[in-house]
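As noted in the main text, all predictions were made from sequence alone. Below is one such record, for L-ascorbate oxidase.
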Amino acid sequence: KVVEHDFEVAYVDAAPDCYAKTVIGINGVYPGPTIRAVQGDILKITFHNYIATEGITMHWHGIRQVGSAWADGTAAVAQCPILYGESFTYEFIVDRPGTYFYHGHFGSQRAAGFYGALIVDLPAGKHEPYHYDGEHMIIVNDWWHRPIVTQEQGLEAIPFKFVGDPQSLLLEGRGRYNCSAVPTYTPAAISCNQTDERCAPHVMKVERGKTYRLRLASVASLSSLNFKIEGHKMKVVEADGHNVQPFWTDNLDLYSGETYSVLVSANMPGDNYHLGLNVRGREDHNVPTGLGILNYNNAPVRQPSTPAPKGPAWDDFEASKRQARKYKALKHNPDPTSHALDRHAKVTRTLILLTTQQKLKGHIKWAINNVTYAPLPTPVLAGLVYNISGSYDTAPPPDKMPADYNIYAPPPVTETNKGSGVYQFKTGDVVDVIIQNCGNLQNISENHPWHLHGHDFWILGYGDGKYDPKTSPKTFNLKNPPMRNNVPTFPFAWTAIRFKLDNPGAWPFHCHIEWHVHLGMGVVFAHGIEEVRAKGIPNSVLGCGLTKQLFKLR
Ligand SMILES: O=C1O[C@H]([C@@H](O)CO)C(O)=C1O
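Prediction:
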């Protein structure tokens, strides 16, 4: 089946947390419409860009784009941005059931509200290995009042001006800022209106006695989040589109880029319960709990007067690590594409990626093995396919961090290099990637959620301190590692993943914090370019940067 949508992209006026702000809307709404398809369907989604001053692209987060690397929607890697007045059609197969989302992947447009949910159902007659009577979807987010252009300007500036804490946390694009905190008689006061219907809390309706599949996704720009439902436990069953060994929890950590399904039994006696969202992993400076409502049997909707639900303290990293380690692959996963780890697969290459905060000529950047990623205007995929010299740095970026690096101190050399090099692999390679987290310029170490495009990976493990190539691999979970496309790193700690290069293309691997990608925290992996070349990429992804020369009039 072909699922077609026509999306008109324009600025729209929104008030997600009662504070009026211009956001990027789709067909006049924010958040974007939910796309629903069945495993094996072809999606044909056409975007029309009506924003006079910005290009756009759309990334299908968690969809591997098997055979359609050009449709991955990453500006500078997969395609040229869609310019004002132009239209562009993404066409790809959704080959796996699960919970996904889509979001802009150019500049910081995701943080401007350019996102929506994508749900892929099992074909008729097939069933998940768990039962539910109904389902709901909630995308969570952190939210700022300043526009993204102001945020980006601050990140580029000398001195650096960080975006700071979010003003509010949103569930399904709805939160609540305390307007009385805004000085009266200022333009800001006029922008804040707590009776605006658009910031009424999100309501999840349930019927007593039934079980619901709640799908969750985090598109947060900065914050690690924790989700709770007052008085209810959650049974976690799916993570990043893969069913996992179910486990119960009363609070769920959600890192940016992750998706989950949890089962919730509506078995409590009251009418309304809080849905609560809190900041984890960064000092929260009292960012207020994002609130929604779980409403029973169509009773009058009321935000309960009970205290807002709180998960573990923001700095309880041990709780987060314990939860991260609970994820295990489901043995008899009915999804054949969710291939089990071949324990005997020979690892053909190991990358140890040290992620540092450094400076580049006075600008604060994030770097991987001393290279901050600086995208060039030519899409890397086109550069590789057409062999366009100058479209990316041909010197390969470094595979290893310095063995004697002290992860507990700020970087000894503050100045970083900038680059646009590509890690090139052979199809069939099995690669271990270790992400090593360390002290930043203030010698603080933060969570960084890493996301891989084009592939899923097995999470082999998390370890405190510095990765030791001799002893650390002995701790890897090779029995039932979960397969995902997102993984957190914890402060002063390492995370190890493994994946098989079986989907030709050029694929970013980056920190999913919007502001950190902007500051260069990512790399590009590529393989199987001959196959992409043989199949061809559509002209519609070309035209910018050095690809212009491909269209020279003869
Ligand atoms: O990228 C970041 O910059 C700030 C800080 O390190 C410098 O102001 C911060 O908390 C980040 O996550």
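The chain has two domains: 2-324, 349-551. Residues 160, 162, 357, 440, 442, 446, 515-516 surround ascorbic acid (CB under 6 Å). These features were considered when defining construct boundaries for the mutagenesis experiments described in Section 2.9.
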